[in-house]
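quick one if you have a minute, typing this from the bus. theres a chain ive been looking at and ive put its sequence and its fold in token form underneath. please have a look and point out which stretches look like helix strand or loop to you. anything you notice is useful, everything is just below.

***
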Amino acid sequence: MSIFNVVSKDESLKVNNVNILIYGEPSAGKTSTANTSANCLTLDFDKGSHRSAFRKDVFVVESWKQITENQNEFNKLCQNYDTIVIDTADSMLEFMGVYAIAKNSKLAFNKLQWYGAIKDMFSQFVGMLKTMQKDIIFIAHVKEKDEGDYRVKRPAIMGGSYDKVLQVCDFVGFASFKGDKRTLNFNPSEYHVGKNSAKLPLFEVPDFAENPLWFDLRIAEMKNSLNEMNEEQRQAIETLETFNIKILDCYDIETMNNLLKEFKELKKGLKPQIWVNYEKRAKDLGLEYKKATDSFQLISNK
């Protein structure tokens, strides 16, 4: 048995953990929402978890050195939880920045290399939690930025690391108010940043006293949707390969036209990719497609 778990091209890649960013307005319930995920530990970099009425276990972080120089003990701590909440992402990155300069004072005079060191630490940290198959929820405040004719709300994350955080996140949700109701919206718009790989709807956030595992259910929806997408992709690849074999098995005008019936039943997204090979095979057989008769005909010598 191989020590390497290779997933073949005709197998679907199962999504076991997700990275989520929740950002938004003050009092919109960002931390409380994250704490309705299953068996979670909040890494409190802002020292603000006491404001959440629904908080679970909290580790108040004093410095990045506390984590990185006690890595084995920290890893053992995280093993006891299913979800790790980072509150807030920006403060964690600031802690990393302070530690980077403490380790190399020259970085204080080279912002580009300083941001590079922070990104490296961030990537290693997220990679470690991913290896442990933990769901990660990043919390962030909101800031506004003029982009063209719009004033866009986006996560308040230090400039040099903003893109890196969004890159590792599968979902980005904006927490806000609609009247007196709290909402969570993963759909991007011209007014706020979002990332919604699972096509989740706009959520009206419930009373967590009545729904203590509300966000745990949302995370399950995310994973199920992503896994269904993977399965669809696997099926699409299988259909492409199967149909291309059938095309190569066509040796005359009759078999080419008989296959047209099956071609019409394919999903629209697959047809353009298959039609290229279909037309190439027709040309090899001296045939061309006639739209008027919806069939392949012998190429005219005219």
